[in-house]
Amino acid sequence: MLILAVGQRPPGWVSAACADYLGRFGRRLKVELREIAPARRGAVSRDAALAQEDARLLAALPDSAWPVLLDAGGRQYDSPGLAVALSDWLAQGGPLALMIGGADGFGPGVRERVRSQWALSALTFPHMLARVLVAEQLYRAFSLLHNLPYHREH
To answer: The whole model's pTM is what?
Structure first.
């Protein structure tokens, strides 16, 4: 599994939290977080910035990947529902690639390539926080699929 996230040099707490959750998969599932350089805002128009970021995301996306866009317009899941979705996405063959956009989201190039869309919430989150939420929710879904003790119903 691959997480492609626009943005570099996250705060230490983001790096630590992501490393913690992604490390919990152990040998059961290889998960890699790749940072994609954002376009320089102000140096180019919004459309040009989106086009640059789209090109960088698509260049990092393996041809055989099943891309899932993290987007406010995507489907929201509860934890058991995300576990089912994760299982379905992983069953498509090729690597699963979750894509977290930059400050302006995604352009048409990436949107044309995705197979599924996932909305973390109706709320808007900082992109660095979204990384942590994605890592934690993926591990929670994985733990549900594999009967690991992490997820607890209240």
So the answer is: 0.91
